[in-house]
Specification:
The complex is a heterodimer of chains A (368) and B (234).
Chain A: H1 4-11, H2 13-50, E1 55-59, E2 72-73, H3 76-82, E3 86-101, E4 104-113, E5 125-128, E6 136-140, H4 141-146, E7 154-157, E8 160-168, E9 178-182, H5 183-190, E10 195-196, E11 198-203, H6 209-219, E12 223-227, H7 228-272, H8 274-282, H9 287-323, H10 333-359
Parallel strand pairs in A: 4-9, 6-8
Antiparallel strand pairs in A: 1-11, 1-12, 2-10, 3-4, 3-11, 5-8, 6-9, 7-8
Helix pairs in contact in A: 1-9, 2-7, 2-9, 2-10, 7-8, 7-9, 7-10, 9-10
Chain B: H1 2-5, E1 8-21, E2 24-38, E3 42-46, H2 53-60, E4 68-73, E5 76-77, H3 83-93, E6 94-97, H4 109-119, H5 126-137, H6 153-165, E7 171-175, H7 183-200, E8 203-207, E9 219-224, E10 227-232
Parallel strand pairs in B: 3-8, 3-9, 6-7, 7-8
Antiparallel strand pairs in B: 1-2, 1-4, 4-5, 9-10
Helix pairs in contact in B: 4-5, 4-6, 5-6, 6-7
The chains are: A alpha+beta (368), B alpha/beta (234).
Chain lengths: 368, 234
């Protein structure tokens, strides 16, 4: 087989590299967006995944950690603990606190937990100690980097000074980062000492969350109960409602730009090499052969663009993360596969205009 | 030659072609032409610009459908064929030679010659061997791995002739084959076409203004205003 498509591309190296480079930037954008999306997803659900609770109990109509309010008596924990199948229960309080850090106004997503309880502790601690006492905080790595904070630094919240005792990971929801303090301090900041937002329940071996929830709903019909899986899904849904359309819009625009870039290469080739295509038709090239010539050109450009994008993403993402510490980018194989599939789709879409143009070239034009 | 002409390779009857402009007939490029061209015959079609030579050649090459009339090539009515069938028919039965050679710059000389074989589904190494043999015959083997842009006009036309012959078609159609060549190269090109006709029995139809070709042709058809004005045997 004669590599007609490859030779046609190689004859116009500059055009090829401009196209592949442009698509590389589009690919990088898509990979980066998916990485940020995955980072947001993991960050916003990391706490729920790792706090060891099998069931989340909250006020009726409250469904997630991020954007719904829930307040209920802390004393309910004792009742939950007595329920069949429940091993332990612990309350956490989530409040929004406004403060100023190094002169900048900041809204904190503050979680109060009981350091003595095994449930409700923040995810991975990377610096400092997890066992905090009164007047102490655990902050996320991205939050610490954003405000250049280290263990030992102090933040004033509602007129009270808190000392950073530890820095953790998995608490960065990008739009905000979770900050942890003791339940008692959180209750003092709220002004209600016996209130919690959620009760976290862990189960005995052999007990199923669905059965325990069914029983708890009978005894507490005004409350909502969710399995860990449901609560993670609720948080994801909430986050996706706000963030996902923006991601997809940008990714879609990137895809359209990529398709336009890819289309330009074979389209330009068809325009400039009109007589060559007419010759191919004249000497007996079937439509399928010519279609493959165009598709191969798009595909070669797209795959080259994808490889460039992958390399750019690997090089530039760490740089960008240093510049914008609040960002959390998680690259997954799934994201790479999704973007590659998108690039293949772009190659297909990008072939449409040149194939259409090609269909309007008549073999007789070879005599021009 | 006379016995050859008893068996027509190409036969047209009342061939007519009209070009339309915004759905209205604007030019009747070919009017009611009936021809018989025998196997192995060399026919020169001459005439002033706009006389309908290239339109006639395009129809004989199955590149353009007539509005009226029929064309039979190798006994087959090609006006009844679909576009797909015409593509296949051209591939197997017609070789083309052009004034501007029309070699693909992105392919080597060898690949240009090999192309019709590849399109016909012939795989390597057979396609490569046949292309090499065609280049050898036209004394172009030493340029096989070169790209066309480094060849002279005469060399390019030799490669184009090799490409036209490689699939062993029954008919060779040449549009101004000497138009871009100096007199020596032009002479050599016409000689090669004559050899293709005499040695291999190819029917060669040449459209040209070049008066020197007249002496190589078995028959000269002069066209004017889309009609055959005169037919003569030089």
């Amino acid at each position: 087989m004669i590599p007609v498509a490859r030779r046609m591309i190689w004859r116009e190296k500059a055009r090829f590299f401009i196209t592949a480079g442009g698509l590389g930037l589009t690919t990088m954008l898509m990979l980066f967006l998916l990485g940020v999306y995955e980072g947001v997803k993991r960050g916003s659900t990391g706490y729920v995944r790792e706090c060891r609770a099998d069931i989340w109990a909250c006020e009726s109509n409250s469904t997630n950690l991020l954007r719904s309010s829930s307040f209920m008596p802390a004393s309910l924990g004792t009742e939950f603990q007595k329920a069949d199948g429940v091993r332990s229960a612990a309350g956490i309080l989530r409040i929004l606190a406004t403060t100023k850090i190094k002169g900048k106004p900041v809204t904190l997503f503050l979680f109060g937990f009981d350091p003595r309880e095994p449930l409700g502790k923040p995810p991975r601690i990377i610096k400092g100690r997890a066992e905090i006492g009164p007047g102490e905080l655990i902050v996320d790595r991205a939050f610490a980097a954003k405000f250049k904070l280290i263990p030992g630094d102090s933040i004033e919240i509602h007129g009270r000074s808190f000392r950073i005792a530890a820095v953790g990971e998995g608490m960065n929801a990008v739009v905000t980062q979770f900050v942890f303090t003791t339940l008692e301090d959180a209750q003092k900041l709220l002004g209600f000492p016996s209130v919690v937002s959620f009760h976290l329940l862990s189960l005995n071996p052999g007990a199923t969350a669905e059965t325990v929830i069914r029983d708890l709903k009978k005894s507490h019909p005004t409350l909502s109960f969710f399995t860990k899986k449901e609560f993670i899904r609720n948080n994801l849904d909430e986050m996706e409602t706000g963030v996902l359309p923006i991601f997809w819009t940008i990714a879609l625009l990137g895809g359209i730009i990529g398709a336009a870039l890819i289309a330009l290469m074979p389209y330009g080739s068809v325009l400039e090499k009109r007589e060559d295509y007419a010759l191919l038709k004249a000497i007996g090239a079937r439509s399928r052969f010519l279609l493959f010539v165009i598709l191969k050109q798009s595909l070669i450009g797209s795959v080259a663009g994808f490889m460039i994008g992958l390399a750019l993403d690997a090089v530039l993402s760490p740089v960008l993360l240093k510049l914008v510490p609040g960002l959390s980018v998680v690259m997954t194989l799934r994201a790479v596969i999704v973007v590659f599939a998108a690039v293949l789709l772009i190659a297909g879409l990008g072939s449409w205009a040149p194939v259409r143009k090609l269909s309007r070239i008549f073999p007789m034009e070879v005599f021009r | 030659m006379n016995d050859i002409r008893h068996c027509p390779m190409i036969e047209t009857e009342n061939l007519t072609k009209v070009y339309f402009n915004n759905s209205h007939p604007s030019v009747q490029a070919v009017k009611d032409i009936s021809l018989k061209i025998g196997q192995g015959e060399i026919v020169l079609i001459s005439g002033p610009n706009g006389s309908g030579k290239t339109t006639l050649l395009s129809m004989l090459g199955c590149l353009l459908n007539p509005h009226a009339g029929t064309i039979r090539i190798c006994g087959r009515d090609v006006t009844a064929l679909s576009q797909k069938e015409l593509t296949e028919f051209r591939l197997r039965n017609i070789g083309f030679i052009f004034q501007n050679f029309r070699l693909l710059d992105s392919l080597t000389v060898m690949e240009n010659v090999e192309l019709p074989l590849v399109l016909a589904g012939i795989r390597r190494p057979v396609s490569r061997d046949r292309a090499a043999a065609a280049l050898e015959e036209l004394k172009m083997s030493h340029r096989a791995n070169f790209y066309p842009n480094v060849l002279s006009g005469g060399e390019k036309q030799r490669v184009a002739i090799a490409r036209a012959l490689v699939n062993d078609p029954a008919v060779i159609l040449a549009d101004e084959p000497t138009g871009s060549l100096d007199s020596n190269a032009g002479q050599a090109t016409v000689q090669l076409l004559r050899e293709a006709s005499r040695k291999r029995g190819k029917t060669v139809i040449i459209v040209s203004h070049d008066e020197r070709i007249r002496h190589f042709a078995d028959r000269v058809i002069s066209m004017e205003d889309g009609r055959v004005k005169k037919e003569e045997r030089p």
